[in-house]
Every structure is written in C-alpha cells, then in structure tokens.
Amino acid sequence: MPDKSTLDVVLTPNLLTLYPLQGKVVVVIDVLRATTTMTVALDQGAAKVIPVESIEECLSYKDKPNHILAGERGGQKVEGFNYGNSPFEFMDGVVNGKTLVLTTTNGTRAITMASSAKEVLIGGFLNFSALTRWLINESSDTILLCSGWRDKFNLEDTIFAGAVIHHLKEYFLVDSDSAFAAEKLYLNSRRNMLHFMKQSSHYRRLARFGVVNDIKYCLRPDLTNVVPILKNGALVRADVTKDMV
Amino acid sequence: MPDKSTLDVVLTPNLLTLYPLQGKVVVVIDVLRATTTMTVALDQGAAKVIPVESIEECLSYKDKPNHILAGERGGQKVEGFNYGNSPFEFMDGVVNGKTLVLTTTNGTRAITMASSAKEVLIGGFLNFSALTRWLINESSDTILLCSGWRDKFNLEDTIFAGAVIHHLKEYFLVDSDSAFAAEKLYLNSRRNMLHFMKQSSHYRRLARFGVVNDIKYCLRPDLTNVVPILKNGALVRADVTKDMV
C-alpha cells in the first residue's frame, strides 16, 4: 500500500513561500467572501471566473463581450464597478454563460500566488463535501491556503481549513502544528459557527457594511457540488463526477 | 482616562514585517527552549546573554574571557560546542558572573528581527507572572512574537501567547484574529498542557532527542521573577521591582 499523501495548512499567503508547491494541490480559501462568490458564479452558469490581482487588470476586460467586471477592496465594492463581492449579486442568471472577472482584497491574490502548483482549487463551506471528495479521489499532497486579511492570519479561513483537516485526516498524513491548531479551532466553533465568527475582525468589518446575510450564506454547508479549478488562468468547474470514491 | 494600549500576537517571525514596531514593546517567545534557557541563565547569575544569529558569530566570542558559547540547530547541540540549548545545562553556577553567547534555530533570530522595537523582552512560562506584571506596568502597545519553527507556525509559542492574552486582555485593547485564536488554543490546553503539547511537532522532535524533562521544565510556571530585556544587543535582567502595580 502506498504511503498516504500529506495534507497541510498554510495560515496566510505570506507564509506560502516556505512550502514547495511542485506537484501539489493547493486549495485557496477565502470564505468571506471571494471563494464563496466564485463558486456561486460557476454554480449559476458562468462559463468561467478570471481572478485578477489589480483593479487595473480587471478594467482591461471592460470592452470584451460577455465579460462582467466585479471588484472589492477593504470589504466594499470598488467605485465605478457594477458588481462587488457579494454572492447574492451573482444569482438570478446575471452570470449565465458569461465570464466573471473578479478582483478582491485577499482571495484573488492568493490564487495568483498558488498558481505554480499542480492544481489550484477553490474551497468554501458551500462546496465542502464536493471539495473533500475531490481531494480524497485525487490523493495528492495537498495544501490548504488561507487567504487571510492583508497577509495576516484570519479566523474564518483557518476554521474552514480545520474542518477539511477534521474530515480528511484519516485519508491523509497530517503532521503540522498549523493543521492541529486549525482543527482545534474548528472543533471549538462548529456547534455555533456564526456566534464564534462574530469574534473575527472580518465579521465585524463586514457587519459594519450591513452584509450579515452574506456572512450567514458563506457559512452554509453543501449548497453545491461545483468545485472551481484553475485552468489557463481562469476558474472553471472541476469534473467531480468521474472516478469518485 | 487614556485609551488602552494594544496587545497583539504575531504567529511567526515571517509575519513581523506586517507590523510597525516603532514605539512598541515586543515579547519574543520561544518556549521550547531558547527563551526559557536565556531566562534560566540570567536567573542563575549570568551577567548577560548575547543572542546571536549564526554559529560563526557565536564562535567569534571564543577567546573572550568569561564568555560561554552555546548553540543549537534543529533541536540538537551544535557539534564542537560545550553547551547546547537545555536550561539544565546552565544551572549549578556554570554561568554565574559570566556572559552567555547563545545561538538557536528560531529564538535568537526572532530577537534580532524585533530589535528596532522600543523594548524587546523575553518570555516563557517560567517568568509568566513577572513578565505580565512588567507589561501592565509599562502599558505600551505590545506585540507577542512567536518564534515558530523555521518561520512556520508552532503550537507551544502560540499557546504561551494565548496565556498572556488571557491574563492581560482586561488591561489592553485586544482586537485581532491571531490573539483570539491564540487565547482559544491556550484555553483548550491549560487543563493538561503537557498532554496537549504532545501533539506539537517540536515536542515530538525533542522527545526523539530524549529531552522530555526539558519540555516539562519549560512548561512550569513562575519559577523566577527574572525578565530578560535587550539592552545594547545583550539580554540583561529588567528591573521588575520599581513602580509595580
């Protein structure tokens, strides 16, 4: 029987340089709200989602047909953009068949930083089971990359990583302090995650902007089987049906 | 009444560049074992402890009278050195009146990185109460810097930082996700810290080297009132008697 693959947690993008990515799968996590919104867009029929780091790069797609530009900085919609980073903005058919070009404070940058990995996936509570099934099936060395807040540690991404650790630790070799701590924090939070999240700085930041419903949505598990995967610089739906365990 | 000063936790030295240090107090934490050993040396009468980053720099003090060289890499004594990084090596008068020059894998580097702060202190369980009293009395913006393991997150330093947060949060403004998480992990561990620590990668690393007694010693609280403070590149005993609250 072959050795198990490894599963580890990187608590902020600033620490990613300490981890070799070659041959590995990286799951980028930005629960509030980028990875949730990207997954919703693909679930709602978007052909693809292009994550871009800068507002300028986002604007360079302005005149392309069937492209929708969206952006957020500091938790708020970028001025002059028609769409921000709320998952609710991308329901009701607005992205169906379109390409969403999205730039956010933390999540899109983390995706760019991970792009030398073998595969880059996007995870959030809404695709938790589909994502974890994909990871078990793929069975490669895997890094759960928390997007954090301006390179600092954040609570919500760590708790999500901890949930993945908790559910996958029998399938993978899990052996780091960051994975252990993330799992503990998840176990502390899971009976009342919203209450626990109220302690997080980003919850309080977003609550000031009146988007508590966004937060509640971002914590709801298993709303979709869509797992976004990075292909040629754009996120598309991973094939989650074939060879499933 | 003046605003409270801030108290925050930096989970690894790699993240320290995200935090301005000017005018702040930094507490460097390397529970297993550098900050414990440094504190023991000063408690046992060492005139000062010079933390140096490299083995070469340490060796440059070789011919100076009354200097004792000590060093550890990867958890083990550096070959050719008479002393490593075990607190037990510096008891029984060996450092009395001497200068200890010490290089370790993580802790001494973290001290160098913090040296632009207003004050740099050294903390561990053995001087917990003396340290926290000093911080309350000083009442400056304070950063608890976990030394980590080769720039990655580690459990034992985070738990110690969480203990400080738990005991000082009524005196300081505590408002970050890293501080919240550290406190939670401390609360998870405090009923049986040794058992909890057995999950940490550095515990397992040190246990392989047969130094479980070192670990037990490093977790014992309040063995001394000595608080090491950095003055002109060397750690000396902070004055913990004057103006105590």
Kindly describe this structure.
Two copies of one chain form a homodimer. Chain A is α/β, with parallel strands linked by helices and 245 residues long. Chain A has one domain: ComB-like (putative 2-phosphosulfolactate phosphatase), CATH 3.90.1560. The first copy, chain A, has nine helices and ten strands. In chain A, strands 1-8-2-7 form a four-stranded parallel β-sheet, sandwiched between helices. In chain A, strands 3-6-4-5 form a four-stranded mixed β-sheet. Chain A has a two-stranded antiparallel sheet with strand order 9-10. The longest helix of chain A is centred in the middle third of the chain and has 14 residues, at 155-168. The model of chain A has no long low-confidence stretch (mean pLDDT 93). Chains A and B meet through helix 6 of A and helix 6 of B.
